[in-house]
Amino acid sequence: MKKTQRPNLKEKIGYGFGDFASSMFWKMFSVYLMIFYTDVFGLSAAAVGTMFLLTRIWDTANDPVMGIIADRTNTKWGKFRPWLLWGAIPFAVIGVLTFSTPDWSVENKLIYAYVTYTLMMMAYTAVNVPYASLLGVMSSNSNDRTQLASFRMVFAFAGSIFAFVMVEPLTQFFSHLTDTPNPQQGWTYTMLVYGVIAAILFYFTFAWTRERIAPPASQQSSLKADFKNLANNKPWFILLGAALSTLIFNSMRDGASVYYFKYYIGLPEWSLFGLSFGITTVYLVVGQAANIIGVVLAQPISKRLGKRNTFMTAMFLAAILSIFFYFLTAEQLTLIILLQVLISACAGIIFPLLWSMYADIADYSEYQTGRRATGLIFSSSSFAQKMGWTLGGALTGWTLAYFGYVANAEQTEFAKEGLRYMVSFLPAVGALISALFMIFYRLTDDYMAKVNQELSARRSDI
Question: Which fold has domain 10-210+220-460?
Answer without folding.
Answer: Growth Hormone; Chain: A; (1.20.1250)
